[in-house]
Every structure is written in structure tokens, then in C-alpha cells.
Automatic annotation (TrEMBL):
TM annotation in the entry: 217-238, 250-272, 293-322, 342-361
Name of the protein described by the UniProt record: Uncharacterized protein
Keyword Transmembrane helix annotated: yes
Keywords noted in UniProt: Membrane, Transmembrane, Transmembrane helix
InterPro entries: MetalloPept_cat_dom_sf
Length: 379
């Protein structure tokens, strides 16, 4: 899909994409069920950031268009600069979880060089970049061979030497393509459809969640961690907290932890997930359900990591900071120095931490967390 964001056909963008699309289709001719459609989408409402346009804004537009047009994969080609989180600029951003890839022609060649006027060179580079992104959408791994389409791209010049998929990669693509492209749409009850798709796509959802790396997501939530620790430290030095931990039953504590966990995940999901929409006819797609499921599971695993972190930290504080005589006498009528009391206290504080932290965590950088969730590859 061509997106002429700047409102002008910079550098013959339409002709460049048409030539690249023909070469792209020719390379993938071994996949007889693959059909490539070229679409035009001019002038979307996208606000540039300081270092360029946010690639994740294009991903949201891609999700909408892919759902409405019932497309299995979507490669968006634009002429504007894409902002990057960890590098100086982006050539492309494939999002395996959403099956949408964003490609920019801005940096295919230096604007003032002779390469910028070599249309055949630009076409080859754009084609190679599109093939690389498509391979990533089909979960192909990076290769050390610099002539392979799945080699890592550090500069536009690296695209010149990439000219083939291996036989093993072609076989894997032929195997993965039907599974990834089989996108169903709801016909009757949406709730039943969602449950069926969650159950039927559980392996894909788990893979997508693990690929997002929950530990890395946790490191991108400094405001959440700071908020949680502030509340936990305040509570642990209160005698009422120790009284509650000593007196609370296992059933009551379990209910509190489960409710806190569900509330925290819902707050973070609303803050960081993409807006997954239905078609104009009100149909929900299977890919939307899988994306939502993987996003929610990734956030659940992230909170599990933080729950364990807070628990271990508080256990260390209880064991190594508080003197035993104080534990025994601080509580009203029971001994707070027992292992059971320590466990209940630690679990309670960790649950309070993720609940209160989620409220602060929703203020963390939306783009940074989304980038980890939906687009780990910055090319």
C-alpha cells in the first residue's frame, strides 16, 4: 500500500512502488496462492514527531486497512522519515504480531548523490527491503549470509548484495503462509467467535507474547516501578499492614491478589494496546483477536515478572531489615515473625504494588512500550 503522507508524489513514488511490486511478485512466484495487490492511500492524518513520523502510527492505520480490506499481510510504503527508538533512522519496521510492515523510501539513497537519481538501484533496494520485511512477517530468522534476503541491514548499501532466499527458507515460507494468511471473520455471536479463536490460536498467541519479551517490557515501565515501590515502602512501615497480613485468611488474600492482577492488566492493556476495530459490517477478524490475546498475555507475563520482583524485594526487606522483636510485638494479638506471616505480607505488598503501579505505569511512554510489544525489529 502506498502512503503519500507529505501530500506530494516525491521522487516518483508511485512509479517506484509499481516497479518494486512487480519484482517483489516475481521473486515470490513460487507461492501460487500469494496474490499481491497495490493500493493507494494518500494524505492520512499523521502528526510528525521531532525525529520524524512514528512508525507505530502507520501500524495502527495498517491494522485498520488490513481489517477492512480483509488482507492477510500489509506492506505500507511511504516517502517520509520514520522515527526510531534506538537508532538514528528507520528503513523499515515489520510488526510480526500484527502482520503489518512499514517501509520508508526516504533513506534508500543519499538525496544529493547520484544514487538518488538511479531509478533501477532504488527499485532493487526497495524490492529487497520489502522482501526482507515480508520474510520477517513470516517469522523467518536473520541470517549471517550477507547475500540472503534475511541478512541484517545496517545501511542502505547492504541491500545491494541481498539477492535470494535459501531453499529451506522458501519451504518454511510455503508452510507458514497458509497458516498466517488464514484470517477468519465473525459471522454470528462475536463473543463465541473470540473464545474459539483464542482457543484455536493459543500457540500463536503464546509465541507472540514471548517474542515481545515481558522482561524487556518491564524495563520500559520506570514510572510504574517507582509508583509501586513508593506505595509498598509506605505500607511496610505501618503496623496496620502487619496486622492485616497476620490476620487475613488464605481465601481472602487469594481473592485480593487475583482482583488486583486483573485490574492492573486491564489498565495497562487500555493504555498500551492498539485500537483493534471491526469492519464496517461489524465483523471481527481472527488476526485482531490473536493480536489482542498476545498483547494481553504479554502484559500478564510482564506483571508476573514485576510481582515476583516486588515479592523478592519485600522478602529481603522483611528478613534483613526488620528485627524479630519488633515483628513479634508490632502486631496486635498474633506473632508477625512467623514464616506464614512473612509470606502473606510479601504477597499482599506485591499485589498492592502492581495495582498501584499500573495506575502510574499508564503514564509511561506509550510509543516506547508499544514498540517493544508490537515491533521488536528496527531495520
Amino acid at each position: 500500500m502506498k502512503m503519500d503522507v507529505a501530500g506530494r508524489d516525491a521522487g516518483g513514488l508511485s512509479e517506484l512502488i509499481q516497479r518494486a511490486t512487480k519484482r517483489f511478485t516475481k521473486v515470490l512466484r513460487h507461492a501460487p496462492r500469494l496474490q499481491v495487490r497495490s493500493l493507494t492511500f494518500d494524505g492520512p492524518t499523521v502528526t510528525p514527531e521531532q525525529a520524524g513520523y512514528s512508525a507505530l502510527d502507520f501500524v495502527q492505520i495498517g491494522i485498520n486497512e488490513k481489517t477492512e480490506r480483509k488482507l492477510a499481510f500489509l506492506l505500507i510504503v511511504t516517502e517520509v522519515e520514520l522515527a526510531a527508538a534506538s537508532v538514528s533512522y528507520l528503513l523499515a519496521l515489520p510488526s510480526q504480531l500484527t502482520n503489518v510492515a512499514i517501509v520508508s523510501t526516504k533513506r534508500l539513497a543519499d538525496f544529493e548523490s547520484d544514487e538518488a537519481r538511479d531509478q533501477d538501484l532504488l527499485t532493487r533496494r526497495l524490492t529487497t527491503l520489502m522482501l526482507h520485511c515480508f520474510g520477517r512477517l513470516l517469522n523467518l530468522d536473520y541470517q549471517s549470509d550477507p547475500t540472503n534476503y534475511m541478512a541484517r541491514i545496517r545501511a542502505p548499501e547492504d541491500l545491494d548484495g541481498m539477492d535470494h532466499f535459501s531453499e529451506r527458507q522458501s519451504e518454511r515460507m510455503a508452510t507458514s503462509l497458509p497458516e498466517e494468511a488464514n484470517d477468519r471473520f465473525s459471522e454470528g455471536n462475536k463473543f463465541v467467535f473470540v473464545l474459539r479463536q483464542l482457543a484455536g490460536n493459543l500457540p500463536r498467541i503464546v509465541r507472540g507474547a514471548l517474542r515481545s519479551n515481558p522482561l524487556r517490557i518491564a524495563t520500559k515501565l520506570p514510572t510504574m516501578i517507582a509508583t509501586a515501590l513508593s506505595v509498598i515502602i509506605l505500607l511496610i512501615f505501618g503496623g496496620e499492614t502487619w496486622d492485616f497480613a497476620v490476620s487475613v485468611s488464605a481465601r481472602q488474600l487469594t481473592v485480593f491478589v487475583v482482583v488486583s492482577f486483573l485490574a492492573a492488566t486491564l489498565v495497562l492493556y487500555r493504555a498500551f494496546s492498539f485500537r483493534l476495530i471491526s469492519t464496517r459490517h461489524g465483523k471481527t477478524s481472527e488476526s485482531a483477536v490473536v493480536t489482542a490475546g498476545a498483547t494481553y498475555l504479554a502484559l500478564v507475563l510482564t506483571l508476573c515478572c514485576l510481582l515476583l520482583l516486588f515479592g523478592l524485594l519485600m522478602y529481603g526487606v522483611v528478613v534483613f531489615v526488620f528485627p524479630d522483636p519488633l515483628m513479634s510485638t508490632w502486631t496486635s494479638d498474633q506473632d508477625g515473625s512467623t514464616a506464614g506471616a512473612h509470606f502473606r505480607l510479601v504477597v499482599f505488598l506485591a499485589a498492592v504494588g502492581i495495582l498501584s503501579g499500573s495506575l502510574g505505569g499508564s503514564a509511561d511512554s506509550r510509543s516506547v512500550v508499544r514498540n517493544v510489544l508490537f515491533a521488536a525489529d528496527e531495520t
